[in-house]
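TA notes, week 10

Several of you asked for a full example with nothing omitted. So below is the full record: structure tokens for the whole chain, then the designed sequence directly under it. When grading your own attempts, check the secondary structure regions first.
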């Protein structure tokens, strides 16, 4: 079991390394040139040199307790707050949270934006088109995976390339823990990120499956109750982790992502009970 938790901590380290690194500052010289030319710099400026940005410290936040849509939000003109942090964790709350930031892409490529959240029920983005009208893209667990811009365990939105600075809005809410880390990146950086994360996940899940099969063999050989409990414990721990990481939804029930949330909660309860039985046996 210590080996299992060791691999889990390793995967968590990779998530922090590739989700939340403390880098992504806009180049100072470029910013000064923009100011010199009387051009308002965007909050988030994606360039070929700065091709992946965790921009939570550059956004404005509004807590929405009325579940407004974008038109109602713009009409209300609420007071926005700039928290200045890369990672957000609002705990268990019934509120929705709006994000607002200005964005400029000078790379000539489409960009991908994510909040790095898996179990949020609503994750929407509102992008202005060439006429200034906002186009809504919907994500989150209330929608099937087939509606996502990218079939991935995370929720990504494609932002088509267009020159100039635009104001983008995002909305998120969750029945569970509302936590997110805004990130924008180019396609090649997204591929690189997944090439680092996915092998570690497969190795970790493969270890859990190997432990299950090995202990099943012992169970059929010695027929002891302890091994039966251990097999169930590791199996439901595997369900817990795959539902927590988004793979349960992605591969098993892509048309009903909310089922992954229910499996996560149920697996937590069962793992706790089986762990108690295991240590008593």
């Amino acid at each position: 079991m210590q080996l299992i938790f060791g691999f889990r901590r390793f995967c968590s380290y990779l998530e922090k390394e590739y989700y939340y690194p403390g880098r992504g500052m806009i180049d100072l010289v470029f910013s000064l040139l923009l100011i010199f030319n009387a051009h308002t710099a965007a909050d988030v400026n994606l360039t070929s040199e700065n091709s992946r940005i965790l921009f939570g410290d550059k956004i404005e936040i509004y807590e929405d307790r009325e579940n407004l849509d974008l038109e109602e939000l713009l009409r209300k003109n609420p007071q926005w707050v700039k928290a200045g942090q890369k990672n957000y964790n609002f705990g268990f709350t019934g509120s929705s949270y709006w994000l607002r930031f200005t964005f400029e892409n000078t790379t000539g490529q489409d960009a991908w934006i994510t909040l790095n959240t898996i179990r949020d029920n609503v994750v929407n983005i509102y992008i202005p088109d060439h006429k200034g009208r906002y186009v809504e893209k919907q994500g989150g667990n209330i929608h099937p995976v087939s509606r996502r811009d990218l079939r991935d365990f995370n929720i990504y939105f494609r932002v088509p390339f267009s020159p100039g600075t635009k104001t983008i809005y995002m909305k998120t809410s969750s029945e569970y823990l509302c936590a997110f880390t805004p990130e924008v990146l180019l396609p090649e950086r997204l591929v690189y990120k997944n090439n680092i994360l996915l092998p570690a996940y497969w190795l970790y899940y493969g270890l859990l499956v190997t432990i299950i099969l090995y202990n099943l063999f012992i169970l059929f050989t010695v027929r002891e109750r302890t091994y039966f409990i251990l097999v169930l414990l590791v199996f439901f721990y595997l369900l817990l982790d795959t539902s927590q990481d988004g793979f349960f939804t992605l591969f098993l029930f892509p048309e009903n992502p909310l089922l992954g949330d229910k499996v996560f909660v149920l697996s937590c309860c069962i793992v706790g009970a089986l762990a108690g039985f295991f240590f008593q046996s």
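The CA atoms of residues 237 and 271 lie 6 Å apart. Use that as a sanity check on your answer.
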